[in-house]
Amino acid sequence: MLSQSHRPLTRRGFLVASATAGAALALASPPARAAARPRPFGRYGSPAARLTPQTLYVDASGRGDFTSVQAAVTAATGSGWTLVIAPGTYRETVSVDRARTEMTWLGAGDGPRDVVIVYDNAAGTPKPDGSGTYGTTGSATTTVRGDGFTAHRITFANDFLREEHPGISGTQAVALKVQGDRSAFHHCRFLGHQDTLYADSNAGTLFARQYFSHCYVEGDVDFVFGRATAVFEHCHFRTLNRTDLSSAPYGFVFAPSTESANPHGYLVLRGRVTSEAPDAHYKVARPWVPSSSTTVRPMLTVRETWLGPGIDAVAPYANMRAEHPWQHQRFAEYRNTGPGAEITVPENRPQLTDEEAAAHTRETYLGDWAPWKDC
Questions:
Q1: Residue 312 annotated to the active site
Q2: Is 195 assigned a catalytic role?
Q3: 212 pairs with which residues across the strands?
């Protein structure tokens, strides 16, 4: 394990380019392969040979239609646009509003590490205009509110580091907040610490469906959270070590906030949970019942997933507030494996029967929408 003095640089390098030990590329520079790539958009054409009239090309080096992702989004008014994003690091915040529907983002690299969208706002970061702080929602590097959004092979990151900002107490720092219905992410990465991936909806009365396939998510506190109906299939969740705490728990992987009227919350299917922290220092989940809401009953089902030793097998769930105990929510497991899935205290590990598990599938959660066909 690297020393604490080196951790900020290592984590930041990891956010940009590589998970290998010692990676320390600066965020101001794109991955080395981007500069040498003769065809920045690969098989996806170019401004001179567009895939379709509604395809826009983004390249930080200036070989596309735009040098920033937000500039391309702003130009893509209406529905059905495709953004092809060349390898590189895009240090910016990006917002896709509700009017921009059926939008697709294609990372043109060999994998999600090649295209990185990153910024470092936190909930407690002061706004430049002096009007207060960003809050959790405002901290998001990328916000997607339009329905029908799809992303392939892109890293969404927030590289805010607690140790660099000791005066900021609001350390929630969202990499992606997605709110639209029929939002799909294939082979993407979501990197941050607290509140990394905000899988939400545009309103409490709207049950947004979202699908994450072969994705990687890392963080520490509540790093997958929100009220969406979200299916995570073949995804890898990694809990981070913490040097600012001396005892467990270090954090929680999931913090669902499902509306009571919504029959489907978060479904984790055939995934894995690993950790760089000591054994048993993380919980699987805790329920998020906002103080402003009286209609929330969080739902999480984890099935056929490998839970590593970083998960506290004795007490894998905890309360966020004593008045909303996790036992009164909709938490369940089914056929999980690994040391973190060992059932030592049965009352702490609610298990589905085979009959009950038949209702917890991607098909039942997502209905007439089948995004796995686009993987």
A1: no
A2: yes
A3: 185, 232
For the four alpha carbons of 24, 271, 314 and 227, in that order, the dihedral sign comes to: positive
- The rounded distance, in Å, linking the Cα atoms of 43 and 324 is 51
Q: What is the DSSP letter of 335?
A: S
The region that residue 181 occupies, defined by phi over 0 for left and psi between -120 and 50 for alpha, beta otherwise, is beta
For the beta sheet containing 272-275, the strands, ordered from the edge strand earlier in sequence to the opposite edge, are: 88-91, 115-119, 155-158, 189-191, 216-219, 236-239, 272-275, 306-307
Active-site residue (options: 59, 159, 200, 222): 222
Contact 72, 83 (CB under 8 A): yes
Q: What backbone torsions phi and psi does residue 366 show, to the nearest 5 degrees?
A: -105, -10
Strand partners of residue 306 = 272, 337
pLDDT tens over the chain, length 375 residues: 333 333 344 455 555 543 333 333 233 334 444 444 568 999 999 999 999 999 999 999 999 999 999 999 999 999 999 999 999 999 999 999 999 999 999 999 999 999 999 999 999 999 999 999 999 999 999 999 999 999 999 999 999 999 999 999 999 999 999 999 999 999 999 999 999 999 999 999 999 999 999 999 999 999 999 999 999 999 999 999 999 999 999 999 999 999 999 999 999 999 999 999 999 999 999 999 998 888 999 999 999 999 999 999 999 999 999 999 999 999 999 999 999 999 999 999 999 999 999 999 999 999 999 999 887
Nearby residues of 129 by Cβ (< 8 Å), 6 or more positions away: none
What contacts 24+ positions apart, CB below 8 Å, involve 164-168?
164/8, 165/122, 165/124, 165/125, 168/122, 168/124, 168/125
Of 321, 237, 323, 326, residue with least CA distance to 282: 237
Q: Identify which of 304, 298, 285 has the alpha carbon closest to the alpha carbon of residue 361.
A: 304
Catalytic residue among 114, 195, 200, 312: 195
- Looking at the chain, the number of H-run helices and the number of E-run strands are 6, 25
Can you list the positions of beta strands (E) in 181-247?
183-186, 189-191, 197-199, 209-213, 216-219, 224-226, 229-233, 236-239
Q: How much is the pTM?
A: 0.92
